[in-house]
Amino acid sequence: MPSALPIADPAPADGLLTPGPGAGEVPFGVYVHVPFCRVRCGYCDFNTYTASELRGVRRDDYAGHAVQEIRWAAEVLDRSGVPRRPVSTVFFGGGTPTMLPADDLVMILRAIDDTWGILPGAEVTTEANPDSVDADSIATLERGGFTRMSYGMQSAVPHVLATLDRTHDPERVPLVVDLAKQRGLDVSLDLIYSTPGESLDDWRTSLDAALACAPDHVSAYSLIVEEGTAMGRMVARGELPAPDDDLAADMYELADRTLVDAGYAWYEVSNWARADEQGGPERHASRHNLSYWKGHDWWGVGPGAHSAVAGTRWWNVKHPAAYANRVLSGESPAAGRETLDADTRYVERVLLAARVRGELTTAELGREARGRVAGLIARGLVDGSAAVRGRIELTLQGRLLADAVVRELLD
């Protein structure tokens, strides 16, 4: 079943916030969670539902419920005294957003634009499975204002896809990439490595297949076997081998070497974008995901979606039926919330910004943490020349040990 929500303070029914100093001064984005999937992948721990799990709500009604929350959200922010800002990024995630008709996704996007306004040149992304879109749906999305497609490729190797319970034909990936490019959309491919039974040669095959599509952006995530998932149970019973940490490190190094050689540059530990003329990834980096890592504000729409605005973070009730009941009654769909104090904001800033190339400055670190930077440089985990310029930039070895670097900076 989907993962549990965090335990925190109750969320008030009116959803009102108490903004602190500087509220409304950072960019504002919108995340839309579409929690529907055709099948549940064995490794997935996201808040998703197949048709048989919906109980009491219809998928066809979801777009209307999302629009209801968007309109209600604007009223809450106005009544809370949070200044209105136009939206700089929009991201439809899931689940599989393209399980909904493209017209429904466009309707939700139009509601966001009508409510807050979307900045010219804003990044508007939807995730999609390769078998959930076609030429007509992609054209509808592009005409409706979408600028970017993020395809869940995961692997190009049939036995790896089977272990992941992915049902798409890997030969369809280049087709849908080409369809998106024909409409002028940026394209990202999501890959997973360290799947049980996956070899280094399998991973090389997937990287080569992804690069043959010439995407603008590649994400590569090491598989985490979550408790409570079908895969987690299979690993616990010994039916599948647990991922091997050393092999996962070899796979990451292969990914970085292969992508850099092909003209991509890393900008976050698990993300690479096609380099521009100056060799930087800025043009094709995921601006929406960067907004999370940089601590911007966003409103999360949909069941289980998380939001962070003006120093308060909250998350919606998980099930689509419970979510629908809340938004249709004009009540906050939030299940819980927390207000971030200065210490928590500092920890999260270091935790997230350290993963982004050059985002964390040495000036932001506490005195003891600044004193540890030299040791991290000596151990080959932090780039010394970047540190001289006042920036924390992980080396390749540092990216492999990013959690350890963060712990040292925070201890």
Automatic annotation (TrEMBL):
Entry keyword set: 4Fe-4S, Chaperone, Cytoplasm, Heme, Iron, Iron-sulfur, Metal-binding, S-adenosyl-L-methionine
Keyword S-adenosyl-L-methionine in record: yes
PROSITE patterns named among the record's database cross-references: RADICAL_SAM
Leader peptide range in chain numbering: none
Subcellular location: Cytoplasm
Family to which this protein belongs: Belongs to the anaerobic coproporphyrinogen-III oxidase family. HemW subfamily.
Protein name listed in UniProt: Heme chaperone HemW
